Amino acid sequence: MSGTVGGTAGGAVGGTAGGAVDGTVAEVFRRRAEPGAALADAAGAIAAASHAMAGRFHRGGRLLAFGSGAAAADAQHVAVEFVQPVIAGRRALPAMPLTGNAATLTGLCAGPGPDDVFAHQIRCFGGPDDIAFGISPDGRCGGVLHGLRTARDRGMLTVALAGGDGGALTGALTGALAGALAGAVAGAVDHLVAVPSTDPRIVKEVHVTAYHLLWDLVHVFLEQPDVPGREVVA
Amino acid sequence: MTEMLYPFLYAGGSGLDTLLEDVRRSTADKANEIVRLREAVLAEHGEGIAACAARMADAFRSGGRLFAFGNGAGAADAQDVAALFLNPGGSARPLPAHALSSDAALVTALSDDIGFEAVYARQLAAFGRPGDIALALSTSGDSANLIAALREASRRGMATVGITGRTGGRMAETPGPTHLFTVPSSSAHRIQEARTTICHALWELTQEAL
User: Fold this and answer.
1) Is the distance from CB of A173 to CB of A194 less than 8 angstroms?
2) How far apart are CA B139 and CA B5, in angstroms?
């Protein structure tokens, strides 16, 4: 585990033609290094979350993934990972995005409103063995928060990927407070991975790695006889 | 396969605590792997990303639009890219962008009537104009429907951009897209993660240029 990443990316393309613009590219990439490396600090939370998720799949549960804006695309990406695994031989696991149907989404936004857009679907689909997987890069999405609370009330396992105000995080990623609403998310979920960046695009990039790792580790635990069924304290 | 990826599982006598510790270590290793991969992408493609963003900014300035497409995770990522350009939030400038994977009615109609290879090429034939931008996302570079779409886009005078992994697959064959970014990794997941960064860098640099 190493957090020492900064500095190496900066000068990689220096001295080439159009150096001013290249300098900007290097700057864009340089900003990714620290939050990307910090995911290593969340390894414990990721291990605990994937173990708990494996337990739910083992019991026949399904994963319901949701998020707004860019995170809606992540919800669909997560569902594809589980249903159609990229590694041959891994079995399909039941995962559904709650973001795939424009008729449902616009109907719910026009009716009960955006805060109910995922909670409504969770009330219809969710059972106590299922997993609610909510994604909110700034930790401020009311729809995601209500979805997670509704899921928790129904006894579902709740997992959230969030991000936000790095100032409040002070480098500790798991269960930590990432701004006001991410704090609320932390109170509403069983497992939280929060990325210490206020740039929603950087947070998203680290989220993609986080859910790839979660998918991978769910299979690692499922392939261990009697591991999924055992309880573990995060 | 699992044995190859996680040899520690088979080292013998692993209790849950040991397993969790091994999983934590493996997770930390992979987190550091993507950090190094981004550095490699910058070294290899930094100039190309800047040039591509300048070209995209020119296209938007002239009234061009962005069409993004991919399969599976690439379809979801195409929708993410389109949403970012179209509705970036804050003070960033909204730009016309559309994901060709977002309409299940159209994608299934084209698959059923013509074949899966036509799902994006046919849409570009209908929507695309000279000066537009086609962005193809494929970890292998071998997806026949993306190759067909890039060729259709070139025929129509669109700028073409491809993001793939490994050696670029069929997408790297001549004539390839105007801008091709191959992510030097053998892991589809790490390729997708670096690809997301490339898309975000293209967006940010396009915004700066406009």
Assistant:
1) yes
2) 20
CB A136 within 8 A of CB A160: yes
Q: What is the DSSP letter of A92?
A: P
Indicate the pLDDT class of residue A23, thresholds 50, 70 and 90: low
Residue with tokens 């979801």: B76
Residues 6+ apart with CB under 8 A from A104: A121
Distance CA B80, CA B76 (A): 6
d(CA A38, CA B24): 13
Q: How many CB atoms lie within 10 A of CB A166?
A: 19
Interior angle at CA B121, CA B164 and CA B201, nearest 5: 35
Q: Is B42 exposed, middle or buried (0-12, 13-18, 19+ CB in 10 A)?
A: buried
Cβ under 8 Å to A: B residues 10-49: 16, 19-20, 23-25, 27-28, 30-32, 34-35, 38-39, 41-43, 46-47, 49
Q: Is A26 on the interface with B (CB under 8 A)?
A: yes
Q: A232 CB near a chain B CB, below 8 Å?
A: yes
- Angle between helix axes A142-153 and A179-188 (nearest 10 degrees) is 20
Count of C-beta atoms within a 10 Å radius of residue B62: 10
3-state SS, residue A171: coil
Query: How many other CB atoms sit within 10 Å of the CB of residue A106?
Result: 11
Write out pLDDT tens, residues A121-173: 999 999 999 999 999 998 888 999 999 999 999 999 999 999 975 333 333 33
Statement: residue B200 has pLDDT above 80: yes
CA distances from B29 to A2, A119, A186 (A): 9, 36, 26
pLDDT digits (tens, 9 = 90+) for A104-123: 999 999 999 999 999 999 99
The answer to ipTM > 0.95 is no
Output helix, strand, coil percentages for chain B, rounded to the nearest 5: 60, 10, 30
